[in-house]
Amino acid sequence: MTAPGIRALGESALAWVSAHRDGFALDDSALAEHGDVNASWKPLGELAQVCGCVRRHTEPQDPLHRAAGDLLSFAWEETGRGALFLELQRLEPFATYPLEVYAAFAAAGLRHAGYERAAATVARTRGWQVTEQEPNRRLSVLNSERRSGIPEHTEMSWALRSTWLGGLPEPWTFERAAGYTLTHVVFHLTDWGAHPQGVPPQVAAYLRHWLPPWLDTCLEDEQWDLSCELLAVAAGLPGPPERAVLQDAWARLATAQDDSGAVPEVGPGRSGRAAAQGFTGCYHSTLMAAFAAALTLDRLREDGGAGPAAARPRPLAHAARARRGGQGAPA
Predict the structure, then answer these.
(1) pLDDT at residue number 70
(2) Angle at CA 59, nearest 5°, toward 305 and 304?
(3) Which residue from 199, 248, 244 is spatially nearest to 227, judged by alpha carbons?
(4) Which of 107, 233, 274, 331 could connect to 147 by a Cys-Cys bridge, CB 3.0–4.6 Å?
């Protein structure tokens, strides 16, 4: 698929998100004692994160940029222009998810001084600094501190060593849960594609070698959501993107997108039997398609003079298959 095809896919995906923005709206459960964070703050935070990234990687006159800006403004208003984060801080002072969601807005220039002061106070406590977390989640918190102007409570390099990707594991141990972990590790290291050099050289070399077969098997297994995240990783590594891999992968991803612009998380989409749709079944994968498209187009522009890269063999593709099961995408 060419750059215009990737652009069309990304614009269609963001158009679906715009048409379904009410699905991201917060309701009374957002501040409820037993509210479901994964059904309220998580989708809104993902919307803010993706739209902030799309704006950062597109020019102001670009339709993608304008659509993302409108959605980001909608998301910010849903938080009371940041006031709800201060209330969350009062209700759950040691929860990390409010800062992780807020950081997506802060990175886009939308800030609430009162919340940042309160969060910085908590971040100085020993309780915050020794909170037990999954290693990739600790990277998320560290990047959120950095984006929000709060001193990082430990070094990113230290946290990286404890992750699956940081250990440079045997490539045949890749599975769905590991895939989502590695994509988010790269997102946090690079601040969601803004700083490719944040990926250490040995990790970047490992990914350049093994990402193509992993992506190939995810596409073959119709794991569209994870495939979109891997495409974003491919476009966010240091150095020029590998065009032959991107062209083939984007062409295959396009077969899953339906006429409305939605991309299902898993399943055949329009190329086969009907896949489960509805907001919860495709909002994240559709957001990731828009994010990966904007990041890929930006990197291709930077590398504008280069022709398609030579196709390389896909080693151990049969052994690197993304098995179904495991955990969903981290927050």
Answers:
(1) 98
(2) 5
(3) 248
(4) 107
